[in-house]
Amino acid sequence: MLELATRTLLDPAGMNSADLERALGRLVEGRVDLGDLYFQHRQNEGWSLEDGIVKSGSFAIDQGVGVRAISGTGTGFAYADAINMPALMQAAGNARAIARAGQSGTLPVARRVETPALYASDNPVDAVDSASKVDLLRTIDSYTRSLDPRITQVNVSLSCQHESILVAASDGTLAGDVRPLIRLDVRVIAEQGDRRESGNAGGGGRYALAGLMRPEAWQKFADEAVRQALVNLEAVDAPAGFMKVVLGPGWPGVLLHEAIGHGLEGDFHRKGISAFGGRMGERIATEHCTVVDDGTLADRRGSLSIDDEGTPGARNVLIENGRLTGLMQDKLNARAMGVAPTGNGRRESFAHLPLPRMTNTYMLPGEHAPEDIIASVDDGVYAVNFNGGQVDITSGKFVFVASEAYRIRNGKLGPALKGATLIGNGPDVLTRVAMVGNDLALDSGVGVCGKEGQGVPVGVGQPTLRIDGLTVGGTQ
Amino acid sequence: MSEALDFPAETRAPLLHDHERERAKLEDAAGQVLARARAGGADAAEVSVSSGHGRDVTVRLGEIDVLEDARDRGVSVTVYIGRASGSASTGDLGEESLRRAVDQALAIASHTQPDPAGGLAPAELMADRVEDFDQWHPLELDMNTLIDRARAIEQAGLDADARVDNSEGASVSAHAAIGVYANSHGFVGSGKSTRFDQSCVLVAHDDSGMQRDWDWDDQGRYDRLANPEVTGSKAAERAIRRLGARTAPSGRVPVLFANEVALGLIRHLVGAVSGGNLYRRSSFLLEARGKKIFPDWVDIVENPHLPGAPRSSSFDAEGVATRKAPLIERGVLQRYVLGSYSARKLGLQTTANAGGVRNLIFSPGQRNFEQLLGEMDRGLVVTEVMGQGVNLVTGDYSRGASGFWVENGSIAYPVEEITIAGNLRDMFAGLAAAGSDLETRRNIQVPSLLLEAMTVAGQEE
Question: Which ranges of A160-214 would DSSP assign to H, the alpha helix?
Fold first, then answer.
């Protein structure tokens, strides 16, 4: 991977490892604790279909180098959107202004970070020609329209990304990665009488486009989008109030991402602003709950062979049998807190600074059959699909928005409910997990996590869960 | 760390101090792109080129947290071959990159299908002059000045009250940007602007727990920024007033959206009357033009020519001349928000809104915030909403919220972990009053809005 990344990022500019050392040397003149260079080249291609025609396509190339100097917990940062030596040296000069005058630092010998690749390096932009991509979208469109006469609008979009990164740091790190990322989305509108509802589904990951082009892969998304829209046509107003909630498997794991995950990112702990601050080792969930953040799953959207600081991706146990056992760290925060980085240092691009971020976050399965969990609820809500969420990491309050849900009465599923926000308190929501299903599922690969204005791809997952008390924001 | 830092000379000069040369370079790049597109077989093409330079400083607990010096450039091009289109973008303005971007756009256009609604905006609608809206106020402003200002903001907040015992930091930034848009009708337009902003996020703490909140300012001129002490102490005050927040009683009550969140309601209106959502039948306001969707007293006007406002421009993102035009008059929707593509899809004419609305202003009312509380008597003030629970297809609205519970016309206690729900159609029709406190620092300017009733859910019955 390092060789491949070097070929893409340094060779065209006629640069080599001696140039990297020269730039790092400039960066760490003076009192700098860590300096790093992050080279990135990213190709994005997108196609979209509506009204039965593939009416737009786009292609983008972004490349550049981000230069960072850390002194204590302070960061000097500059970047250049061209990869060449003058631009690199100027950015290094700006970034190291953070450091005060002092002794010149000496650089350790470069330590090449080699990890097993978790995904193939094939370029999904080039591997399949444009005509085949256009055909795929048209085929999906006609299949989707054929599913039900109430479907009046179909949008299909395909995006392919191919990214090469290279990290060289003054701690000796030298690492590269080549990351494919593909995603297919189907969105429909269904109409019946004067009701109009939408449904959408999609997925992808870090794998070759051939995986999404198989009919059994894309038909699943088309079927699901149509099913959701038709279910929503029948939906009734959701209840309002505090009640038991059963969450379905897979994508509803966005609960863990919002309620728990963000609050366990190292920067918020270093700054003392997380609602989970100082609770390491304490019980923050019922004993049924074990939650991991795992960047090492093959082909997943949130996976990373190495993170954006060159630390190998890892499986970190955040909560074990209900006890808080781990945080997610990047280099800056790990060093400030006296712990090791955990492979969670991620950045949206060379023009953004790394932060501790999640990869694939999920809860391990328990022992209950999902139907037994539903049957155990007298009065509540069963929520199986969500539109993302948000958290205030300081107060701990989080929301996530159910897009498909059903009323449960006397252990039986009732009518579909209109979309409603669910709100809870991160530090105590997992203390209300009464039952954990045996049906762990990961999401289909559509998650984007936003933090400080930076979006990165992530995955979530969970088995069916019963939570004894969340506020449901309906109107009835 | 109070001594001044030694920065490279280029971090002291005014941002984009060579702006005339930079604009010439952008216009030259735009020209190259259009020429290359024509030579490559495009029947029409359009290009936008931008260049930005910014300095950002964040200080946390008195120490420097982040110093950033950033320069960005970008080009995006769309070509049309017959009625098929292709787009490409790149961050590099070198000749070779520009040529590659055009070739990629052409390659894509050879695969997309003819779209009867595709193409440039009509030539006769292009702006014939580009006015100056007083958006360019560069000055020499080095990193140390920004650092000192950020420290002063944060310190004022930390000094305001002993309960304010932590900070996520104070930031100050200066940005300058130049943009050029050109198309094969022969239209070339450019604009440039400076922005200065400051913000501070503070954490307050007492026996009930921890809360954070923030304050900010954003201006086109550095000397118009609020005093650092004002931003810091307001952030402190806002964090403190949230301490002891609890859940609210469930039920249907009046809800007062403070101006910082009221703008979200009008943003949903804009989304629902935007061409893209209309032709995709993804709006609860299909066929609403000419219909009454607000009470009589509601007027909302778009003024793209407002002096000093960051989004003011003589032309939209397709070169079409902009003009002041009402959106809502006496409660009635006057028009949609269209670019030329969605206009053709709907059989209408563009409203010069390619790229969005510019300075949309909700006419404020006579009463101040306290008077609105009095009018509400008992209900909820919302100061923050959470999550994406707005469905523009149906108008269904359900979001997390925090704010204050109101009894007898005055604030009783802070609330959190509650939801508010309703349908935007009813919420718009059920507007009871608008405050006099117009928030003028945003592109969509809205005062606090009082709604007759929404469903509030909390943990109490």
Answer: 210-213
Question: B105 in contact with A at a CB cutoff of 8 Å?
Answer: yes
Residues A279 and A197 in one domain: no
Per residue in A191-217, pLDDT (tens digit) is 999 999 999 999 999 999 999 999 999
B410/A contact by beta carbon, under 8 A: no
Q: CA torsion, points A427, A431, A435, A437, in degrees to nearest 10?
A: 30
Domain boundary among A233, A260, A278: A233
Residues 50-89 of B with CB under 8 A from A: 60, 63-73, 85-89
Containing B5, the helix (H) or strand (E) segment is none
Same domain, A203 and A286: no
What total of structural domains would you count in chain A? 2
* Residue A367: Cβ within 10 Å count: 11
For B447, phi then psi, to 5°, come to -90, 175
- For residue B110, the enclosing domain spans 9-238
Q: Which residue of B has its CA nearest to A82?
A: B92
Question: Residues B392, B333: one domain?
Answer: yes
> What confidence score (pLDDT) does residue A121 get?
79
Judgement on whether residues B91 and B206 belong to the same structural domain of the protein = yes
Query: For the domain that residue A219 is a member of, what is the CATH number?
Result: 3.30.2290.10
Alpha helices in B297-409 (DSSP H): 340-346, 369-376
Instruction: Return the residue of B nearest to A277 by Cα.
Output: B210
The CA distance from B109 to B299, in Å, is: 43
Task: Over range A344-348, report the average pLDDT.
Answer: 98
At which of B217, B238, B259 does a domain end?
Answer: B238
ipTM above 0.85, yes or no: yes
**Is residue B2 included in any domain, yes or no?**
no
| DSSP string across A220-267 | HHHHHHHHHHHHHHT-BPPPEEEEEEEEPSSGGGHHHIIIIIGGGBHH
Average pLDDT over residues A115-135: 88
Is B253 found in the same domain as B150? no
Q: Which residue has the higher pLDDT, A29 or A306?
A: A306
Name the stretches of chain B with pLDDT < 70: 1-11, 461
Cβ count near A215 (within 10 Å): 12
Phi, then psi, of A55 in degrees rounded to 5: -100, -15
Q: Do A43 and A158 have their domain in common?
A: yes
Give A48's strand partners.
A56, A157
Q: What is the pLDDT of residue A102?
A: 43
Domain extent, residue A288, equals 240-473
Closest by CA to A349, choosing from B99, B78, B91, B199, is B91
CATH number for the domain that contains residue B119 = 3.30.2290.10
On whether any CB of chain B is under 8 Å from the CB of A139, the answer is no
Q: Are residues B284 and B191 in the same domain?
A: no
Alpha-carbon distance of B88 to B105, in angstroms, equals 5
More confident position, A110 or A451: A451
Question: In terms of domains, do A65 and A110 share one?
Answer: yes
- With contacts defined as CB-CB under 8 Å, which chain B residues touch A400? 387
pLDDT of residue B18: 86
Q: Could you tell me if A343 and A325 lie in one domain?
A: yes
Is residue B3 in some structural domain? no
Report pTM.
Answer: 0.95
Note whether A305 and A426 are same-domain residues: yes
On whether any CB of chain B is under 8 Å from the CB of A73, the answer is yes
Which candidate from B63, B88, B387 shows the least CB-CB separation from A399? B387
A376 and A305 assigned to the same domain: yes
> Among candidates B264, B402, B388, which has minimal Cα distance to A389?
B388
Q: Is B230 on the interface with A (CB under 8 A)?
A: no
Smallest CA–CA distance, residue A450 to chain B, in Å, is 12
The answer to whether residue A104 scores a pLDDT higher than 90 is: no
Does residue B258 sit in the same domain as residue B226?
A: no
Structural domain total, chain B: 2
Given this model, what pLDDT does residue B1 score? 38
Calculate how close chain A gets to B271, using CA atoms only, in Å: 16
